[in-house]
Amino acid sequence: MQISTDHWATWRTSALAAAVELDVFTAIDEGQRTAGAVASRTSANASAMRRLLDVLVAMKYLTRRGENYELVPVARTFLSRKSDLFMEGFDQVTRMLSMGWQQLAQVVRTGQPIVREGGAAPGEFFAVLVKSIFPQNYVGAKTAVRAIPPQTRRRIKNILDIGGGAASWSISIAEEIPGARVTLVDLPQVIAVARQYADRHGLASRFDYREGDFREVELGNEKFDLVILGHIIHSEGAEWGKRLIARCAAALRSKGMLLIAELVPNDARTGPALPMLFDLNMLLHTPEGGTFTMRDYRGWLGEAGFGQVKTIKSASVPSPLILAVKR
Ligand SMILES: C[S@@+](CC[C@H](N)C(=O)[O-])C[C@H]1O[C@@H](n2cnc3c(N)ncnc32)[C@H](O)[C@@H]1O
Hints:
The protein is of the alpha/beta class. Helices cover 51% and strands 17% of the residues. The strands form 2 sheets. The protein has a 7-stranded mixed sheet with strand order 5-4-3-6-7-9-8, with helices on both faces. S-adenosylmethionine binds next to helix 9 and helix 11.
């Protein structure tokens, strides 16, 4: 029954976050197969570990044959440290965001976001968050770049990644477009993370960085062939989001492209559930943020001088990506 599932839904997230915190998936990936072996590798209690591992079997992140546990492909790809696509920080992000969600009723009463007392400063929070969202976005970007016709792709020489985080979108796209240079704008603590990820992917020499507040950083005029707004507009809100889209248009050359990744509810705002829940996440954590519909995006893009707005489905991100061409 859905009411029971939803009553206890946070337990699933907590079980997964605890397993990541304990590094259970890495231990199994390294060859520890039994509950005892995983417990001793992760400094945990063997019988408690067995109970956690059996839950992960029920949740379909592990399989068990006799006493031996195995990772399923999604766990090997995203939850083991041995993977290039490890969702580092999954457990920390779960903890940081759950504090806000516990105050949802109060936030709905007042209409004001939570008061952060002693919480992480934005740069510190984002330096953790961007690592955990890197893998899905990196994979989503591969779909986006393949949706751009090869002759158009060859014209892309300069890419601007605004609020680029760990450079999930721009690393993935730069790998597919040899020679393209990336300028990434973000807060200083996050740029340090982007540098690590670009180095790790062998792209250090093709990345430039601009530290600072993207509302103020000069983005230039007609300099770029592709601008990326990856999960930026939801925290900016409608007014700042529209302004940012207009600044992206100014920064692009004629026929340049804007790629937007967002959680997008349907036009009637009746679903899907994740973009709608994300809207509440923004209500909790930002003064003006929210999720916006395709009708909103088409309107804002048209006003800013974009045409040919298309959507691209990717299995690794929750909503279709938006690609628009400057007229
Ligand atoms: C949700 S993360 C998205 C990261 C990346 N674009 C992605 O999709 O993987 C938002 C990013 O915007 C950055 N950011 C938020 N507000 C900013 C501001 N005012 N100036 C510069 N960067 C900002 C954060 O530091 C973070 O890296």
